[in-house]
Amino acid sequence: MRVLVIGGAGYVAGLTLPLLKRDFRFTIFDRALPQQSELSDIPLIQGDVCDFAALVAACEGQEALLYMAMGSADWSCEDALTSAFDVNVKGLYLALEAAHRVGIEHAVYTSSMSVYDGDLTKRYFPDEAITPDALHFYGFTKWLGEEVCRNACRRFGMTINALRLCHPIADKVWQEKTRPETPTIATAASDVARALKAALEYRGAGFEAFMISGDYEQRLMNMRKARRLLGWEPQMRPKANNSS
Q1: Distance between CA 13 and CA 39 in Å, rounded?
Q2: 2-243 adopts what CATH topology?
């Protein structure tokens, strides 16, 4: 499958694309150059998500869209607010419009559990039907991004899977930090990559949102929907000697 990865030079892409590039024929679309040497063999188109003509050209010949752009990683910088709306709302809208223009019918959107307000470890999420309530601009714009996806499904008949990711980190870091019998929401890169693969391959009916977390005991998040429709659940486990 030929997949255009918008934001493919970013943090989450750097963790996951090296694990997936044997399964898909990726093309990266990003303003920046990938920092990981493992991505140097993937074709790159440098462009801005707010440049509609560039998005249409990049979508030509692709079979699916993977939208991984996240905006500024530093929420304290002056342009973080503008960047969040440009990337998570405007850019996503334009990308889905561009995809439709060239006949792409399927997309995956990397959303975030930040669509919910507050400390996620202090809440329980029985399913994805809980209405998002984010107050911070980042989570709010990710929530708006999901609505952009719903709109594209209604307008164009696309299938779009939104993965509500939760603190993706490298496998080694996950195992170093995670303790047995201690709930975690961080998600190992290999588990995120498997979720992306499943979401790219699954074409349901319109828009679907999935909680994707490293909470392998599901004490905080019930991820039965991902297991039922995507065949996915977190597989990473802490090492036995991590109990101290």
Answers
A1: 9
A2: Rossmann fold (3.40.50)
The whole-number pLDDT of residue 76 equals 72
Provide the CA 243 distance to its chain's centre, in angstroms: 31
Per-domain residue ranges for the chain?
2-243
Nearest Cα neighbor of 49 from 1, 103, 10, 104 is 10
Q: How many other C-beta atoms can be found within 10 angstroms of the C-beta atom of residue 28? A: 26
* pLDDT value of residue 36: 86
Of the listed ranges 61-70, 87-96, 179-188, the one predicted with least confidence: 179-188
Query: Is a pLDDT exceeding 70 seen at residue 35?
Result: yes
Query: Residue 80 and residue 125: Cα distance in Å, rounded?
Result: 28
Map tokens 């996950």 to a residue.
Answer: 174
Label residue 225 left, alpha or beta by phi (over 0 means left) and psi (-120 to 50 means alpha): alpha
Tokens of 99: 């995809």
Residue type, 22: R
Please name the helix (run of DSSP H) or strand (run of DSSP E) that holds residue 92, with its range, or none: helix 92-101
Quote the CA–CA distance of 181 and 195 in Å, as a whole number: 24
Token pair listed for 230: 């995507």
What would the two tokens of residue 52 be? Answer: 């509609």
DSSP β-ladder status, 187-188 and 25-30: unpaired
- Structural contact between residues 214 and 168, judged by C-beta atoms closer than 8 angstroms: no
Rounded distance, CA 157 to CA 163, Å? 19
Question: Which of 128 and 73 is assigned the larger pLDDT?
Answer: 128
User: Is residue 66 helix, strand or coil?
Assistant: strand
Residue labelled with tokens 């063999």: 41
How many angstroms separate the Cα of 62 from the Cα of each of 5, 54, 90, 213?
A: 10, 14, 21, 29
